[in-house]
């Protein structure tokens, strides 16, 4: 009886530790760790989004969505499309319908 309680407690603690490790990795991947308030570290969202949206069929809509994502993540992937691996936070933002928010 005592052995089963020890086994159950160790399984519970193992699951708790795994959950914490996963949460820390997720925060690091999405950039939600320690926020940077230093204004010198901010990128030029207007310029970066203008480059990103230059080939868009709806450039004003693209720039508005890109600007919102850039303000939250402080990064914009290079190029006019794709390259989401360069900015995981940018890629992780979704709409209510679970579609990508950021162009």
TrEMBL record:
Q: Which family is it part of?
A: Belongs to the GASA family.
Keywords of this protein's UniProt record, alphabetized? Answer: Signal
**What is the native source organism of this protein?**
Fraxinus pennsylvanica
UniProt-recorded name of the protein:
Snakin-2
Signal peptide, first to last residue: 1-23
Q: Which PANTHER family match?
A: EXTENSIN, PROLINE-RICH PROTEIN, SNAKIN-2-LIKE
> What does the organism's lineage look like at the top?
Eukaryota, Viridiplantae, Streptophyta, Embryophyta, Tracheophyta
- Highest taxon of source: Eukaryota
Q: Sorted alphabetically, which InterPro entries does this protein's record hold?
A: GASA
